[in-house]
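Page 42, continued from yesterday. The earlier attempt failed because a stray header line got pasted into the input along with the sequence. Redoing it now with the clean sequence only.
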Amino acid sequence: MDNFKFDTHMHLDLFEEREEIIKYIEKEKSYTIAMTNLPVLYSKYINMYKDLKYIRFALGFHPELVYEYENQISIFLENLKYAKYIGEIGLDYKIKNPNNIDAQNRVFKRIISNCKLRDNKVVSVHNRLAASDVNSIIGKFNGTIIMHWFTGNKDELNKSIDNGYYFSINEKMLNTDKKKFLIRNIPIDKLLLESDAPFTSKSKTYSINFMNNIIRDLSDIYKLEPLNMREQLKRNFITAIDV
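This time it went through. Structure tokens are written below.
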């Protein structure tokens, strides 16, 4: 069995045992995109970890932090000239403060418009309660959009599919029949895997075993043998991410 391993969305900087996890990921040869939540953190980590083979740090500006740190947009845009991987960015309408939501939209629109000036960015997008606006702001994209932990309705899902986006699936997205029904509507060649660690596990460390559980459930949903599903996901990752 092909043992290709990958994780399109995790938060390496939120683990206390970061150095040990880095050694583990590199030893396991698992292609991993590590999100950052603020532009200054991206600047820090790409300088600290220049020689990693399997881990890629993504330039992020998390929507939950935009309102407080909007002045970091200049740092983001400067780094955007060189960063291939972008995330976590997006919108989060669980936050009810109108000024906060205005700031999120303002920053997200600037990020997307600047991403579109450059080809082949790989962008992981937060879209909690905001999939419709995310679809509208991004539209068609000259790179790769990955909807991280998609929670929208079927109409919003279909719009994201029409726009050509990918969807990264974690274990918590498969814990109810309702969620599985929504996932069943995603084209199989647009599926990717994510751990979103540490948010999806009570463990204080990181393991790539999350892949096996998701592949098992996706195999049931799409009526494929696990080996065939694993091969499909590998092809999707290579096409979407171009590591």
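Notes: The first strand starts at residue 5 and ends at 10.
Reminder to self: strip header lines before submitting.
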